[in-house]
Amino acid sequence: MRIISVMDQISPETVAEFPERGMQWVKDRVETAMNETGEYVREKPTQSLFYAFAIGYVLNRLPLGRVLAGLLRLLFMALKPAILIYGAAKLYRSAQEREALQR
Question: Would 80 be classed as within a structural domain?
Answer without folding.
Answer: yes
